[in-house]
Design a protein that fits this description.
The protein is built from 31 helices and 31 strands. It is α+β, with helices and mostly antiparallel strands. Strands 22, 23, 24, 25, 26 and 27 form a six-stranded mixed beta sheet that branches. Strands 2-1-20-21 form a four-stranded parallel beta sheet, sandwiched between helices. Strand 30 and strand 31 form a beta hairpin. Helix 2 packs across helix 28, helix 25 packs antiparallel against helix 26 and helix 27 runs antiparallel to helix 28. The two termini are 64 Å apart.
Length: 957
């Protein structure tokens, strides 16, 4: 509880209180803004004319983009922002040119949903939320360069988001050069004949639509008809990452179905190898790297073609090509594009009744099964415990090594999201295939010799046998035999055979899928794409950017019954006919023509894929970023081979989505020569979460935590006993505490100290408002050590400190400096507290050198009080840019340490000795100690174990 206006305050009118803290904090925040204290100079500006400033090492420190929620901040939100601020302040004080700022990721579904509910334009509610959040963050004293702040909804920002999209659209990935190149260079290859068209015709013989289709197969941004996650309840499609394991939307918890729609995609798969390999050079938590590696999912195997009469071939990817002789049927994902082409009009003669699902024809069976599969999530479809379902397509494929005709099924346990969306089923050696084969009475052929006693007659088996350490059997034709070979040798032999016969080859596959980039929403960046009357997509010229978001009467995409999968998106932008249908001269020589604009918008991830670059050069209207500025702040350097932000702090929940997408955009821009950095973020740090207790009544409904009483170890709300569990903090859980409340009651510096002192930054910790007072009292003791609470006069004296104080001071300087650099802020605060307590106990006025060093030590953590005390100590320059104290090594090392001497493991003596003593010197001292001599009582010594300077262990004979 605040002690403002208490009797103590009357007796000590210059005591540090919440009211005084509020005054101090507001004044210094105004001062910092007016003076531009945190403005980081760029190499093309102030640095160019200041050699001393230019010689400073740079440090680019970033927080993950905040979304301006209407609920505002609770005390859990600023944890990372305070941490980066403390680190940035310490870096400034250790001689770095620090860039630290914060913008807002402001497009997205919440503002649009609010607009639908209230009729308020998303821009109005979003800008109001930004203003509120800005005020909350300012009150914390965060040292941001405000000149560099922006929101993604500003047209001058999303102009460059659209420009980057066009760079990606106008690029293709050259696998031989292993980089992106302009699409014009690919066109030149087609025109010259260096690269053949798919059907062998001259490029000039192709129609405009045919050329567009060919280039669409190469472009890094392309539109295609593909299976998507359709959420009728939201009225939009979702990326895989936005669908929960239960097959529902992350936002709104609506059912999600598989549907085929024409959507924009990013060909992120072209970068799969580089996204994987470049992780090695990044300073990221290993857990995050592992999640990215697993998401990319690289696996080596073979592509195998299974001919189907009248429909070409079904291509599969397998990592067990050695078991090809054991493939007795095939399975396609229900969404596979070949399904319609291979199904016959009627069931083949002799079709097993179990295979048909009771349907009269293959078409009827496939249609019914597809509808059933569309209602399941990918997790549900692949669940090991579930019964295997499927239906025969009526088609047969040829096993290319055995020549057998094998039936082709569709089944929901095969997904389009992995491999080719088709598998060769080897039921003897795969548990899922085995279960399917048993359910549909399909043959099971053993081709890997079991290591147990089950034998090689797989028809008698009760389960599959899977092994990578066994010999091949039953695997031979007239041209090749794998019998007797181990798995590795068999893989190599069959892969070579497949390539020789033109029915396959060794290849690498990735779990990573291309990034679905379309959303059927209003509140997002418009695509800078128009379609001509033939439906061909054309990029807008740069001179027409930004393409601004138009006004619409209805902000909501058309939504449907959440369970109705047979629906199609209708976007808000499509209702603005005047905006959609335009006559433009694109500068391509065709003159003015009629076009139709793209009516989808970009996903909310788009704006956060490149925002680190806008921080560097936020007012540049001519270029994405000045090359010299980008090179200075983000270019490759020693220890950072791919460049990037020096420190990026945020939650681990962005391990895949945002980080993977931003890495992809960065690599494309690097390949095209727009930036020198091939990675956006060199060092990543994941802060933990501030948790809070959630109290629920007998109905399971959360009750206001602030109104709960504790009695005899139980908890009560309005007289009713309630349960208590530790969980997230949030408005809906009625346990949120706002930073404004804590700032009012204790001051922002106290809040900053408490959040940093709660525990290691990367560990989650529970919030306890009652414990905040501990840091408040630290600041009061600090203030009292320098300022007289009755007169307000500074009490320091111009004298030299005693040796004990010098040792305490320099140990603190050494420890706090190391902790700051290592982001161990909780232990840094403990060391400052220990020093302050030492000075309090020592009594008397502080020597000026000690007082000034103490203020400098706490300045990164509690900048307002530090700035105030620094000014009261007679300094005219801001504490922000003062040098951090440097420890004198002579005072850091203890004069003596205590050495324990043991005999048979029992302590017999304690010696006060020099910490630099040698083992030999320590052994001699220990053996000569009277207590040790008496304890040995003339006994011989078998061994002396010395661990200088702390331990001597004597083992008698």
């Amino acid at each position: 509880m605040s002690e403002t206006n208490s009797a103590a305050d009357v007796a000590a009118p210059h005591r540090y209180t919440a009211a005084m803290a509020a005054d101090i904090e507001a004044r210094w925040q105004d001062f910092w803004d007016a003076e531009g204290t945190y403005e980081a100079p760029n190499p093309t500006g102030d640095l160019a004319g200041d050699p001393e400033l230019a010689a400073r090492p740079k440090k680019f420190i970033m927080d993950m983009f905040p979304y301006p929620s209407g609920a505002g901040l609770h005390v859990g939100h600023p944890l990372g922002y305070i941490a980066t601020d403390v680190f940035a302040r310490h870096q400034r004080m250790t001689g770095h040119n620090v860039l630290h700022t914060l913008g807002f990721d402001a497009f997205g579904l919440p503002a649009e949903q609010y607009a639908v509910q209230t009729g308020t334009h998303p821009r109005i509610s979003t800008e109001a939320n930004i203003a509120n959040m800005t005020a909350q963050l300012r009150r914390l004293g965060l040292g941001h360069d405000k000149r560099r702040s922006f929101a993604t909804i500003e047209s001058e920002y999303y102009k460059w988001t659209q420009w980057i999209f066009l760079q990606i659209f106008n690029s293709w990935y050259d696998t031989e050069a292993d980089r992106a190149r302009p699409i014009d260079e690919l066109v030149a290859q087609f025109e010259s004949g260096e690269r053949a068209t798919p059907d062998g015709r001259d490029w000039s013989a192709l129609s405009a639509a045919e050329r567009a289709d060919v280039l669409g197969e190469y472009r890094l941004a392309y539109a295609s008809d593909a299976p998507v996650n359709w959420s009728p309840g939201l009225g939009t499609v979702l990326a895989n990452e936005e669908v929960t394991a239960d097959g529902r939307s992350e936002r709104g918890n609506f059912p999600v179905f598989k549907a085929k729609l024409r959507q924009w995609n990013m060909r992120i798969t072209a970068y799969a190898d580089r996204l994987l390999n470049d992780l090695d050079g990044l300073d990221w938590p290993e857990a995050i790297k592992l999640q990215q590696r697993n998401w990319i999912g690289r696996s080596e195997g073979a592509r195998v073609d299974f001919p189907v009469d009248g429909a070409g071939s079904v291509t599969v990817f397998t990592t067990r090509q050695d078991t090809l002789f054991g493939a007795t049927y095939m399975v396609l994902a229900p969404e596979h594009e070949l399904v319609e082409r291979i199904i016959p009009a009627a069931w083949p003669e002799g079709t097993h009744p179990v295979w048909t699902g009771g349907h009269a024809s293959p078409a009827e069976a496939v249609t019914a099964y597809r509808k059933q599969a569309a209602s399941k999530s990918d997790v549900e479809r692949q669940a090991e415990a579930k019964d295997k379902t499927g239906v025969f397509t009526g088609a047969y494929a040829t096993n290319p090594v055995s020549g057998d005709q094998i039936p082709v099924f569709i089944a929901d346990y095969v997904l389009m999201g992995y491999g080719t969306g088709a598998i060769m089923a080897v039921p003897a050696h795969d548990a899922r295939d085995f279960a399917f084969a048993r359910a549909f009475e399909l043959p099971v052929r053993c081709v890997v010799e079991p290591s147990d006693d089950r034998g090689t007659d797989a028809s008698t088996w009760e389960d599959a046998f899977a092994s990578y350490d066994a010999k091949l059997v039953n695997s031979a034709n007239d041209e090749i035999s794998l019998n007797g070979l181990g798995v590795a040798d068999a893989k190599a032999r069959i892969t070579e055979w497949l390539k020789e016969h033109g029915v396959g080859e060794g290849t690498v596959n990735f779990r990573l899928r291309d990034w679905l980039f379309s959303r059927q929403r209003y509140w997002g960046e418009p695509f800078p794409i128009v379609y001509d009357e033939e439906g061909i997509a054309h990029p807008l010229p740069e001179s027409m950017l930004p393409l601004e978001l138009p006004e619409v009467d209805d902000y909501s995409p058309r939504t449907f019954d959440p369970d109705d999968a047979d629906t199609q998106p209708e976007t808000p932008l499509s209702r603005n006919a005047e905006w959609v249908n335009v006559t433009l001269d694109l500068g391509d020589g065709a003159g003015p023509r009629n076009y139709r604009r793209e009516t989808n918008t970009m996903p909310n991830w788009a704006g956060s894929c490149w925002y680190e670059l806008r921080y560097l050069d936020p007012n540049n209207s001519e270029k994405l970023v000045d090359p010299a500025i980008e090179e200075y702040w983000m270019g490759p350097r020693e220890g950072q081979p791919t460049g990037g932000v020096d420190l990026y702090v945020g939650g681990a929940e962005h391990a895949v989505l945002h980080l993977l997408y931003a890495r992809f955009w960065s690599k494309v821009l690097h390949d095209l020569g727009h930036v020198s950095s091939a990675e956006p973020f060199h060092k990543l740090y994941n802060q933990g979460m501030i948790q809070a207790f959630v109290y629920r009544d007998s109905r399971g409904i959360a009750v206001p935590a602030a109104e709960v009483e504790e009695r005899d170890g139980a908890y009560y709300y309005q007289g009713e006993k309630v349960s208590r569990v530790l969980g997230k903090m949030g408005k809906s859980l009625k346990n949120a505490v706002t930073p404004d409340e804590i700032c009012t009651e204790f001051g922002a510096d106290t809040l900053r100290l408490y959040e940093m002192a709660m525990g290691p930054l990367d560990v989650s910790r529970p919030w306890d408002t009652r414990a905040v007072v501990g840091q408040y009292r630290l600041l009061q003791r600090l203030w009292r050590n320098i300022v007289d609470e009755e007169t307000g006069e500074v009490t320091v004296v111009d004298s030299e400190p005693g040796e004990d104080t010098l040792r305490a001071l320099h140990k603190a300087i050494d420890g706090v400096g190391g902790d700051m650099a290592g982001m161990r802020f909780n232990t840094a605060i403990a060391k400052v507290t220990e020093l302050n307590n030492h000075l309090t106990k020592a009594g008397g006025p502080l020597p000026r050198p000690v007082a000034e060093a103490l203020v400098l030590l706490i300045a990164p953590l509690a900048p307002h009080i530090a700035e105030e005390l620094w000014r009261r100590l007679g300094h005219t320059e801001s504490v922000v840019h003062q040098d951090f104290p440097v420890a004198d090594p002579a005072y850091v090392v203890d004069e003596t340490v205590t050495c324990v001497v043991q005999i048979k493991g029992k302590v017999k003596a304690r010696l006060e000795i020099s910490p630099s003593i040698t083992d030999a010197e320590l052994e001699a001292l220990a053996l000569a100690d009277p207590a040790v001599v008496a304890a040995l009582d003339g006994a011989g010594i078998r061994k002396v174990i010395v661990r200088a300077p702390k331990l001597v262990n004597i083992v008698p004979a």
